Structures are given as structure tokens and as C-alpha cells.
Amino acid sequence: MSVYRVNKLLFDLQMQPSVQEEFKSNFAALADRYRLTPEEARAVREVDATALSRMGVQPYLLRFFTVAQGVSNTALIEQLERA
Amino acid sequence: MAEIVAAIACGHAPGMGTRPEPDPAGQKERVYAFYKATRARLAATNPTAIIVVSDEHIQNFFFNNWPSLCIAYPEEMEGPIERWMPIPRATLRGYPEFGEYLLAEALNHHFDPASSQELEPDHGIMLPLHHLRPEMDLPVTVVLQNCVQPPLAPLSRFNEFGQFLAQAIAAWPRPDRFAVIGVGGISHWIGIKRMGEINAAWDRWFLDQVCQGQMDRILSLTPADIERDAGNGGEEIRNWITVMAAAGCRPGELMGYEDVADWVCGAGVVFWDLTRNGNGAR
């Protein structure tokens, strides 16, 4: 199940320094290792909450991902409205 | 032989830690004030140990092994696990002898909890403790009840567990004075459409039922009711149900409620003084 792999990446990104580092320095390799589709990879890399919500990403994981990436409440709320 | 001397049900909105800047209407200030008042009431009951009933926010555990119910009883635990939560990190003493006892009792009473001897408590546990017992001096046992990843157990299960908790505490052979703190809620929508809404009217209705001990009315809420009126965040009322049941559905005191827009969450606290003569300092 593909959305499981996206959820897993977001979970691992929360606490694993090596995943956090790879997110910044070599995202393509990271996306490959988690077997994300091109659209999933794009949505994660661009922190596209609208697309991630539509895909069925776990809402709490999505929320904490956007917090860690510096997305404001207002911006997140607006992106979710469009989902 | 042990007793519950205090019970508390309160919110744990991350905004309490990340967005403390005062709002023009003074709502945040009032929330911090009624948490502080609850802190004093808790201290007056002289607890010797704390049980926090919370929900794991997918920080420690993932869906490769996701517990519906977990009793966590490490020797010690440091939190909050979230690096973006700007409250001071603290190390809590665990109470592994009690936790292991509670686990055995639960298994003997038809519950099948997961268990963990390791936990980095998340904001759901640390924010309330930061405001209600900042001394971080008492041993803590953590009960985690799934409120965030469907499918969720029906509300009745949490009432049953709360009743069980009261019995297990009464049968614990050490003369402990437990404070049971249930956290989460009230209405909020997290990471989904309608995020930002707070249903103050529903929150006040819910708080009335809690304070009046009207468990049947709460248990008659359907999943559709909660989804429509309280949001996915409102599923955390399960922890309130457990504490209410552990308090014997006695009348509770509303310490305060505010619908804090900036925290995207209704914030409320109910307190039960369960000391023998019920006269914790007022």
C-alpha cells in the first residue's frame, strides 16, 4: 500500500537524523529507498499538503510534517481546504 | 489499599507550548491561569504517584505495530519527544512495579494491552505535566489509548477500562495516593479539512456531561456525531471517559474553558478532588 510508504517516510523523518539529512541533501535517493511514486515524491519534497491529504496521508503525520517544515497554521488550513 | 486522590481531564493542545503569545481577548492568559489553579488543587491532595491516560501521536510507535491500548512503564522517560516543542525537556521517574502490576491485572480482566518498557513521552503527556506538576517529581505510569488511527475502539471500552483502573488501584497493596490525569480534546480538526474550527457549543455540552457524571449520554455519541461535531481531534474524549469512570462518575469541577482560535483547539479542564473528606484546599 503506497500511502503506507509515504506515512513511513514522514514517521522516520520525525526522529531519524540520517533521514532528515538525506531529505535535505539527497531527496531522490530517499524517495527511491521508500519506493515513492513520482507524484508522492513531488508532494513530499514540496510539502504539498493538498496533494498529501488527497492521497490519504495520516492527518497527524501530515500535520507534524508541516510543523517541522515551518508551514504556518494558516497556510496548512488553506491547503487542506483545497484537498 | 491505594486510592485515587485526584482526577483531572484536560487538553494538551500543542499551541500551549508553541504559541504562548497573548491574544487580544485574553483567552490564553485565562487558560494558563486555570491550569495553574488546577496545579494548586492537585498539590493539595498530596499525590504520591501519577497515571497519565493519553493517546500516542505517532511519535514512538508506527503502524507496523500499532497498539489500541498500551501500558508504558519504563524506569524513566525523557520528553517531550518532539524537537519542535519548546517546553523544557524533563526526565520523569517511572513506576515499573506498578506498571507491571497494572498490566497483569488488565490481562486478568479481559483487556489485552500492549506494553512498553521504553517511551519518550510526547506533547500529549509533557504539556499537561509541565503545567500541572512542573516539579516532575512523582513516578509516572503512562496508559496510551488509540484515538488517532482508525479503526478506534468504541467509547464503551474506555469506560470499562476506567472502571477497571479504579479497581486495580484499590487493590494495589502499597499505600499510594494516585492522581489520574486524562488528556486530549476537546473539539478540534487536525490535518484535515475544517482544521481551525472549534465547536465551543459542543465542548460546553460535553463538559457539562463530564461534570455531572452523565456517562450514558456521552457513551450514546455515535462515530458520526463525533466526526461532525468534534472532529478527528475530538476522538480524544476517550481519555476523558476513562478518567471520568475512574473517578466513579462523581461530580467534577469545571476549572475553565476557552475556545482558543490560535491553538485551533477548545481548551478545558475538569478536576475531581477524591480525597476522603473531599476538602482539598479551595
Q: How many strand units of chain B?
A: 10
The class by helix and strand makeup of chain B works out as alpha/beta
Mean pLDDT of chain B: 96
- Briefly note the CATH topology name of chain B: Protocatechuate 4,5-dioxygenase, Chain B
Strand order within the widest sheet of chain B?
Answer: 6-3-7-2-8-1-10-9
- Output the helix-strand order of chain B: EHHEEEEHEHEHEHHHHEE
Which parts of chain B are unreliable, with pLDDT below 50 for 5 consecutive residues or more? none
The residue ranges of chain A in which pLDDT falls below 50 over 5 or more consecutive positions are none
Straight-line distance between termini of chain A: 21 Å
Q: Largest beta sheet of chain A, briefly?
A: none
pLDDT averaged residue by residue of chain A: 96
Biggest interface, chains and residue tallies:
A-B, 22 and 21 residues
Radius of gyration of chain B: 17 Å
Q: How much helical structure, as a percent, in the residues of chain A? A: over 70%
Per the principal axes of the C-alpha atoms, what is the gross shape of chain A? globular
Number of DSSP helical runs of chain A: 7
- What is the count of distinct domains of chain A? 1
Give the distance, in angstroms, between the N- and C-terminal Cα atoms of chain B: 27 Å
By DSSP, the count of extended strands of chain A is 0
Classify the beta-strand content of chain A into a percent band.
Answer: under 5%
For the largest beta-sheet of chain B, the strand count, sense and barrel status come to:
8 strands, mixed
